[in-house]
Amino acid sequence: xxxxxxxxxxxxxxxxxxxxxxxxxxxxxxxxxxxxxxxxxxxxxxxxxxxxxxxxxxxxxxxxxxxxxxxxxxxxxxxxxxxxxxxxxxxxxxxxxxxxxxxxxxxxxxxxxxxxxxxxxxxxxxxxxxxxxxxxxxxxxxxxxxxxxxxxxxxxxxxxxxxxxxxxxxxxxxxxxxxxxxxxxxxxxxxxxxxxxxxxxxxxxxxxxxxxxxxxxxxxxxxxxxxxxxxxxxxxxxxxxxxxxxxxxxxxxxxxxxxxxxxxxxxxxxxxxxxxxxxxxxxxxxxxxxxxxxxxxx
Length: 298
Known about the structure:
Blueprint: H1 2-96, H2 98-103, H3 109-129, H4 134-161, H5 167-175, H6 193-209, H7 214-243, H8 251-259, H9 276-283
Helix pairs in contact: 1-3, 3-4, 4-6, 4-7
């Protein structure tokens, strides 16, 4: 009796587990079916999305290529306009620089040279690209006019600021030679520093772009003329001093000569071993057709 009850209980237990497994299997099957449905729906959505992407790509690619072409055309147009503006500027150089060229370089040398540089570039452009252009003659005339005014400014500066050296100053410099133990150095300023720099700037430009060296003759004539006046003034000073008191130097140097013992015998006329020949050379005596000699009072 007992074994029969155990078998019945065992059977019920097995039936219950089987039913549970069947329920679980049914649940899994239902979920699989739902999953398949969802997968099919997702595949359908993705397929539709892919199709739309392909349509969009087919629509955008031509637009993108057209945009690239348009951008390239825009860049070419900008470069062309820039080149045209650059070329057109050469045709306006003569007009743009007319006022400054006519007013001349006095007082604004840097600005004037900048205008000359623009004119020179315009001349080079027309010579290389359009030698038959009437603008070439215009800028050439303007360039020559600018060069003439530079040469005139060079002449004007030299004429205005070149002065003969006073005899007293020359004698003071001679008195500062080895025979006098002076503490103060006597200096000789030929030209103001700003004027000297302008002359150097103009002469450098004329050497490089002027294609002639006529300005050097101007420099020689003006400076040698002042040297000649300085030498004549010194000779006249010697003549007057020898016929009057005999004082050759300025008071400051004369007092030092009285207080300083003579260390060397006086140099005889004709000897050029002191500072005088060096002073004359500094004044421009190296341009003279003769060799300067020392002068002494009779």
